[in-house]
Amino acid sequence: MKNYEELSRKHFNQQAPLYDKRDTVYYSREGKISCRDIAEYLRDKTWHSLLDVGCGTGWMIDMLRKERLADYHGLDLAENMIEVAVSKNIPDAQFVVGKADVLPYEDGRFDVVTCSQSFHHYPDQDKAVAEAYRVLSKGGLYILSDTGVGGLGAWIDNHILFKLSSGGDCRTQNRKSIAKRMEKAGFEVIDCTQLQGFIYRVVGRK
Predict the structure, then answer these.
(1) Which residues of 49-84 are buried (b: 16+ CB within 10 A; e: fewer)?
(2) Residue 50 pLDDT > 70, yes or no?
(3) Domain holding 33: CATH number?
(4) What number of other Cβ atoms are within 10 A of residue 176's Cβ?
(5) Pick from 148, 122, 116: which is nearest to 51 by CA?
(6) Cβ-count burial of 202 within 10 angstroms (0-12 exposed, 13-18 middle, 19+ buried)?
(7) Structurally, how many domains does the chain consist of?
(8) Looking at residue 82, what is its pLDDT?
(9) Is the pTM of this model over 0.85?
(10) Residue 11, Ramachandran bin (φ over 0: left; ψ between -120 and 50: alpha; else beta)
(11) Which end of the chain is more exposed for a tag (fewer CB within 10 A), N or C?
């Protein structure tokens, strides 16, 4: 069986140097759409600390920090992505290499946890949602934006780049199935929106 997590790590380590500069389906187009939408969603909300899971090069945290002072943390599996994020020297931001299903933070640490265009890469998605719930404070928001079933990108992921010998498919989520996962973990789903194409946003409140 192929190690899907290791394939993802290597794939995004290779993308890291050009990830911010390119804007294509296989670099950062969907990621930037999701990040901009999350930033807009948070604009009128009250929050003081944020964790971005699957933060990549820190693109969203850099954008948010220019608009709001807060305590920012980013986590990503790909060490090259984290190196790029750290090199930006974003004030009030800390970046670490880590896994979504084993977050290195204490319970109730954050007001907001975000996850944009990385959830479909997680081998244990239920555990990743449970971890987001654990590190959120009461009333905190989990904002998950990703690309659902369909599209050329999904086909390439599943059948070429990240095909599992067991026949597994980590891109078979849509906004309704994500909402169910959140509810199963204890979240109250307060938003479930199709953004454009196959991209969606689901928000859970602890």
Answers:
(1) bbbbbbbbbbbbbbebbeeeebebbbbbbbebbbeb
(2) yes
(3) 3.40.50.150
(4) 13
(5) 116
(6) buried
(7) 1
(8) 98
(9) yes
(10) alpha
(11) N
